[in-house]
Recover the amino acids of this structure.
């Protein structure tokens, strides 16, 4: 059986259920399979989202049997999305927009975070693990509410979410702090997303073994470093491709480009996995906001995080250290774990690393990069609404602009899908600003104004969350995260 191994070289492989339970490898690396299963898209014509998910997860996540995967997929997508297609594609001018925001929290992370808890719960039963699982998650806004929703009241699992106190939208905050459920905690960090993510990684590395044993708790992660979170994202690259073929916008076998609003590099990496499984993907265009570390990296081969962290109107992309890039490095460096380890150490110690030219050439066969400022994203929202009556959120708008710039710069006319990662209703103040509207002070009034302008409806869960009082009010310094977790683990 094909096993999952660490990008940093811990040689012993584990099955997918074990990798899903652990989240991160013991040596701090990320789990990955060296070889991809081959899944020809021609065989899948006519399959709906769930059938695709069963096939792809079943082949990729070795160690689960087909019945288990079928059960996980069924429970993950049963009635949780507000459209039957789960991930519909809309034609907007000559670009195709893949709408990934029809789940319970109106962001694309719902697609994967509906499946991950099921995969984890199934893994717990399979392995006969006696410990409780504690999920620790750092969020730049959207992971938190999607993870809380997915894990809420799942037996044997608890979850604590850390989010940056500034830089997320009032709706995002309300979604988390009002969440019901007995097995969850939510805490703000007086810092940015990278501080929260670094804090979580530190807890994984440094929480004493004997303390874990005493509390009968094993730590795991719901961030896209977890392979069980990444794998479900492969599915919509296939579903979008098949959709376009079915409506005659694409010939079977023709190359399709995808432009992905990128933060932690999980979403776009899933597209690369789809390509390696055999989906005819042309270029994966990595779209960044003003925190354009990845644009520079793809252009120069130097990853340099030593720069100012900027707070933008696309907060889920405000990231300077994109964790999942490590998996791409591993593949591009021909699975040389030592070479990956050296670079991750350099990033930690010197704030930068560089890649050999041969590896960059390999990466550039599949990836291109472009970035957009807040002004450019606002301008894209305005133009697309004027020309096509289609409303985009700021993250999607960054990708739209990147797709335009990529086409203009390269002349590449291959059909292009822009991944839409959030409902515009999640960021009403930015969207109304883009449209030149006055911004009502109250978020509910903002949603109403957007409904009037666009003739669409706000997703029901977003409208409701604003009426509820927050349950969670803690704000702590990044340095206090370890104590916070230890205290909550003992206090039950
Ligand atoms: C998380 C998120 C992204 C970035 O996705 P990554 O997998 O972290 O690259 C983009 N847009 C939105 C709305 C998100 O929530």
């Amino acid at each position: 059986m094909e096993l999952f191994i660490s990008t940093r070289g811990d040689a012993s492989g584990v099955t997918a259920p074990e990798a899903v339970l652990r989240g991160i490898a013991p040596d701090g690396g990320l789990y990955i399979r060296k070889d991809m299963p081959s899944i020809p898209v021609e065989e899948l014509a006519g399959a709906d989202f769930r059938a695709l998910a069963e096939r792809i997860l079943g082949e990729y996540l070795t160690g689960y049997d087909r019945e288990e995967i079928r059960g996980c997929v069924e429970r993950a997508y049963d009635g949780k999305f507000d459209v039957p297609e789960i991930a519909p594609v809309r034609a907007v001018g000559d670009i195709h927009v893949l709408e990934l925001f029809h789940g319970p929290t109106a962001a694309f992370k719902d697609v994967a975070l509906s499946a991950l808890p099921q995969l984890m719960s199934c893994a717990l039963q399979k392995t006969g693990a006696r410990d409780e699982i504690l999920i620790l998650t750092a969020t730049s806004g959207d992971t938190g509410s999607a993870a809380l929703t997915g894990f809420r009241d799942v037996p044997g699992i608890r979850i604590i979410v850390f989010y940056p106190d500034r830089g997320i939208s009032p709706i995002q905050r309300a979604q988390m702090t009002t969440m019901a459920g007995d097995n969850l905690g939510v805490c703000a960090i007086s810092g940015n997303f990278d501080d929260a993510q670094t804090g979580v990684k530190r807890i994984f590395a440094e929480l004493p073994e004997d303390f874990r044993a005493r509390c009968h708790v094993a730590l795991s992660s719901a961030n896209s470093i977890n392979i069980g979170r990444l794998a479900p994202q492969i599915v919509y690259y296939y579903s979008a491709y098949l959709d376009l073929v079915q409506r005659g916008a694409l010939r079977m076998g023709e190359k399709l480009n995808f432009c992905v609003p990128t933060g932690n590099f999980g979403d776009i990496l899933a597209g690369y996995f789809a390509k390696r499984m055999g989906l005819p993907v042309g270029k994966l265009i990595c779209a960044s906001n003003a925190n354009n570390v990845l644009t520079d990296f793809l252009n120069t081969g130097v990853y340099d995080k030593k720069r100012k962290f900027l707070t933008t109107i696309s907060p889920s992309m405000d990231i300077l250290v994109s964790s999942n890039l490590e998996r791409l490095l591993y593949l591009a460096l021909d699975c040389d774990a030592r070479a990956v380890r050296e670079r991750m150490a350099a990033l930690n110690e010197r704030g930068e690393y560089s890649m050999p030219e041969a590896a960059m050439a390999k990466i550039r066969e599949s990836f291109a990069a472009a970035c957009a400022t807040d002004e450019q994203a606002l301008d894209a929202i305005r133009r697309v609404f004027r020309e096509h009556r289609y409303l985009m959120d700021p993250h999607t708008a960054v990708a739209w602009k990147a797709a335009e710039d990529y086409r203009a710069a390269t002349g590449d006319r291959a059909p292009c899908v822009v991944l839409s990662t959030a409902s515009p209703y999640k960021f009403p103040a930015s969207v109304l600003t883009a449209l030149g509207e006055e911004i009502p002070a109250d978020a509910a009034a903002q949603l109403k104004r957007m409904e009037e302008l666009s003739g669409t409806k706000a997703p029901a869960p977003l409208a409701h969350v604003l009426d509820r009082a927050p349950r969670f009010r803690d704000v702590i310094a990044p340095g206090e995260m370890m104590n916070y977790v230890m205290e909550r683990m003992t206090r039950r």
Notes: The mean pLDDT is 94. Residues 58 and 66 are 6 Å apart (CA to CA). The radius of gyration is 21 Å.
